[in-house]
Amino acid sequence: MLPSNGYNPMLWNCDRQGCFNLKKRPKIELFADCLPGRIAFSDIDAVTEISGNLLFLEWKEHQNISVGQKILFERLTRLCPATVLIIEGDAELMTVESIRTAWKGKISSPQPADINQLRREIAAWKDWALANSALNQTKEIMCN
To answer: What is the rounded CA–CA span in Å between residue 88 and residue 114?
Structure first.
């Protein structure tokens, strides 16, 4: 893959620069007392935007989603032009066992998948996002 097609590899070298999570990941737990109750910041693994539509990727080693993340994904996709793909698999090896989709406030059941299915899901979302600009919808709402 070439940089001209959006190829954007992580250039961090843990052997040379140390553990990325320790060196560069924000310590979001420091803000726990800024939020009410047990609400916490969520760590989302990847996000992109096309025509005002958002696609989030959340990798899990298991099919469990915390109650807080479930609420976040349901509300995010109900209130925003957003889709969340919840991938069960091994991010280090880039293996995929299942995919769930959060869209319009609903989270689907896990569907068996592999990395090629995930690539097809992302490409299908891209086609949909290009054909369904959220920016145009926002302009229509603001003008009415």
So the answer is: 10
